[in-house]
Specification:
alpha/beta, 6-stranded parallel β-sheet, 6-stranded mixed β-sheet
């Protein structure tokens, strides 16, 4: 009981002391604890750019299609994208394959060669937000499509440079040009070659003959032999598989030959001096580059040529022949120097090779 009374007395004293003296300051309230910051919203993942290359020819050709695939692989490495490759080998299925990629949300669709031109245009009209690269097609030359960048291939700059080489290393002053047909682009390439010869050596002469086939080496060989009989000691080809006959005739006669598209120097190491190189992969690479950088040239007709890196000349073949034939080295080295100088002037714009789609004629070129 005493303990209880003592406890009550102590409590009363504490209360009395609380009411005496000066006014007490209110007790500081503990700062309100800050509400936990909301976690920042995750930035939306950047959508992957969807790009597709649809080829109407099979891969494994050691030519244009394989080059396009290689160009796509370079673009993947340089721009961090993925390029889907589709082979659409049945003409009846071209439009269905292109349309399926557009429907599936692909941002950039590349199609190949003239047979795919009309169906590319048809799908592009239905999918205006999808960009299309029409390789080796003339869509915007014949019309105007804001979401299509079409490209044509004009080798006249490259053949002009090769003409300067031929004009420098010929001994007889007679040069031959063998084509697969006389289509506009082929005529343009041959006219470019003739101008390159004339501007370098106006006293030379160029003989032009068409095989009218890209797959007739036997006929091409006979044409080459007839040219050689007339004194030709350098022949430029633009005839695909038919060039094999020209190379064979050149090897038998010991004259120079410059091929087209592929390096066939193994067939004639001491005389296959160069070739009209075409890198179709550069077109694919540029299309991806422009798209990724936001400068895709939709609505424009592009030109693939020496200046943009689509065409090229492999001068290493000249070096190889010069190294193995001391008696020809001086002439070959001079030819290489002229070729490189002319090529550089074309790229810089100092030399402008005008397009000329008319039938090749040395007399006409000489008279200009």
């Amino acid at each position: 009981m005493k303990k209880i009374l003592a406890l009550l007395l102590a409590m009363m004293m504490v209360l009395a002391m609380a009411g005496c003296g000066s006014e007490s300051k209110p007790a500081e309230q503990p700062a309100e604890s800050a509400a936990p910051e909301a976690a920042p919203e995750a930035a939306p993942a950047e959508e992957e750019v969807k790009i597709c290359l649809i080829s109407n020819q099979a891969s494994g050709d050691l030519g244009p299609v394989d080059a396009m695939i290689a160009g796509a692989e370079r673009a993947e490495k340089d721009f961090g994208v993925t390029v889907k490759i589709i082979e659409s080998l049945d003409a009846a299925g071209y439009e269905e394959d292109i349309r399926a990629m557009a429907k599936d949300g692909y941002d950039l669709i590349l199609t190949t060669f003239p047979p795919m031109q009309e169906v590319t245009i048809a799908v592009a009209k239905d999918y205006p937000d999808v960009m299309f690269g029409a390789i080796f097609q003339t869509s915007n030359k014949e019309g105007s499509y804001d979401n299509i960048w079409s490209t044509e291939y004009l080798g006249s700059e490259c053949t002009y440079a090769l003409g300067s080489l031929a004009a420098t290393i010929t001994e007889s002053g007679k040069i031959g040009y063998v084509s697969g047909d006389e289509a506009a682009a082929v005529c343009d390439a041959c006219n470019g070659f003739m101008r390159g010869v004339h501007d370098t050596n106006p006293d030379a002469e160029v003989l032009f003959v068409s095989v009218n086939s890209y797959e007739d080496p036997a006929k091409a060989k006979e044409i080459a032999k007839a040219m050689i009989a007339e004194g030709v000691d350098f022949i430029q080809t633009d005839c695909s598989a038919s060039q094999l006959g020209v190379i064979e005739a050149a090897a038998e006669a010991g004259i120079y030959v410059s091929g087209d598209v592929s390096d066939n120097s193994a067939l004639y190491p001491d005389g296959f001096v160069s070739y009209l190189g075409i890198d179709f992969g550069q077109n694919v690479y540029l299309a991806v580059k422009y798209f990724v950088e936001g400068s895709f040239p939709g609505g424009e007709q592009g030109v693939m040529n020496l200046s943009c890196g689509t065409y090229f000349v492999d001068t290493a073949l000249i070096d190889n022949i010069a190294a193995n034939n001391a008696d020809k080295a001086d002439k070959l080295n001079a030819g290489k120097a002229v070729l490189e100088e002319v090529s550089a002037k074309i790229v810089s714009g100092e030399i402008v090779v005008e397009s000329d789609l008319t039938a090749p004629s040395w007399d006409r070129i000489k008279a200009e």
